[in-house]
Amino acid sequence: MRKRRPTIIDVADRAGVSKSTAARALAGGENILPETRGRVLTAAQAVGYEPNHLAVGMRSGRSGMLGLVIPDIANPFWAEVARGAQDRAAEVGVSLLVFSSDWDPQKEENHLRALRRARVDGAIVNPVSDTLDDLDRFGLPFVLIGSSAERFADVSSVGSNITQAVTLGLDHLVAKGHQAPVLIVGPKSRLARTRFLNAVNRHCIERDVDPAPLLIVDGEYTLEGGREAMLQVLDRPHFGHVCVFAANDMMAIGAMLAVRERGLSCPEDVSILGFDGIPSGAFTFPGLTTIAKPGRDIGARAVESLFDEIEGRPEHGRVYMPCRLIDRGSLADLSREPRQMVG
């Protein structure tokens, strides 16, 4: 015989309160004493009560679900963003539907359409496409994340402070004696590439250094993209020690593979600095020195901003989150040696 599903009446009886009080306590309503709320929550857990989200949604006009569309779930950085968003949503009993656009505008559009059909309360999106008319037309609250979000100045968004991060990385390279790093960056179609290079140029100009001689090599934001770019660097004539600043950690780890493939060593022959702070960078040999973006914090903060949008308290501005340096073993210290230039 099937066991009867516990109801709000069972919770109320166990907590010694009325049905309406139990319902308001579980819904986070106001004018409930903390002791009463605690007693109701304990009773709900004891009887195994789970709210009927469909019924709650019909009464409140909300589904209790949010959407998240990120460009690459296989990239550990975006997985960290998703985890941060999921954890923050779970704290208030909200579920998160996660989609990966694979940097494809058509997939992004399909995912957004699916989220609207699912009647999510709002969505967090790293935009691939420049067209966000569908979101406006259907009246779905949303918050943008990532570098691409800066294209939409009138929309609430959350992302890393790239200028601060690049400055942090370049200052660290200079302190280590690396005056002219090779820059391995993403494709020309990505705004993240432009932001990275703009930050490099600003850093050079502020220090009265000409950025023009810096070697810039494009590649995909993947292990293979970093490997191929590093092979291009090593195929060029160069003198002395080579230093590389890669635009993400996946590319940096791919560059490490190329260095070993050519029979060279990191950091003895080639120094490599990454960007993202993905966990796997701690397990490379040597460990990858990197500028870590606050992936989980970005996800959590985006959910908080989305709650504000849903409640009609929009921020309509960019939240810049600071990055930090993780110093491991992939950079040689040349600060006491004669200055070397890459040619």
Would you summarize the structure shown here?
The protein is an alpha/beta fold. Helices cover 42% and strands 16% of the residues.
Characterise the protein shown here:
It is built from 12 helices and 12 strands. By secondary structure, the protein is an alpha/beta fold. The protein folds into 3 domains: 29 residues; 126 residues, Rossmann fold (3-Layer(aba) Sandwich); 132 residues, Response regulator (Rossmann fold, 3-Layer(aba) Sandwich). The strands form 2 sheets. A 6-stranded parallel sheet has the order 2-1-3-4-5-11, with helices on both faces. The protein has a 6-stranded mixed sheet with strand order 7-6-8-9-10-12, with helices on both faces. Helix 5 links the parallel strand 1 and strand 2. The protein is elongated and about 80 Å long. The relative contact order is 0.12. Keywords: DNA-binding, Transcription, Transcription regulation. This is LacI family transcriptional regulator. InterPro entries: HTH_LacI, LacI/GalR-like_sensor, Lambda_DNA-bd_dom_sf, Peripla_BP_I.
Largest sheet: 6 strands, parallel
State the order of secondary-structure elements, H for helix, E for strand. HHHHEHEHEHEEHEHEHEHEEHEE
The CATH topology annotation of the largest domain reads as Rossmann fold
**How many β-strand stretches?**
12
Dominant shape: elongated
Report helical residue fraction.
40-55%
CATH superfamily of the largest domain: Response regulator
CATH first level of the largest domain: which class?
A: Alpha Beta
What is the averaged pLDDT score? 87
Count of helical regions: 12
What is the SS-derived class? alpha/beta
CATH architecture descriptor text of the largest domain: 3-Layer(aba) Sandwich
